Amino acid sequence: MWRTHFRVENAAELARQRLAARPGFNAYEAFNSLDLNGGGSISASEIQRNLQSRGYFVGFQEASQVLAKFDANGNGSIGYSEFASETQPKSPARRR
Known about the structure:
By secondary structure, the protein is mainly alpha-helical.
């Protein structure tokens, strides 16, 4: 179990590093593209619809699990500050 956890966290950090290295990546624009109803937050159903529109067919439970990873304050949705925080590199040793 721990091996899987560390592998997933390492992959997530690598993805954050790649985003940080892309000069064209804008967290605000990425957030707005995921906020389908323009309500200022991302819900589990919006995550589900975004993934399904890209060919990944997930259930509401799986979308809720993705939401829980980003939802730092536990209010059931992802605000911009939570999204921006999760897309920034976490490892100080790897920041550029």
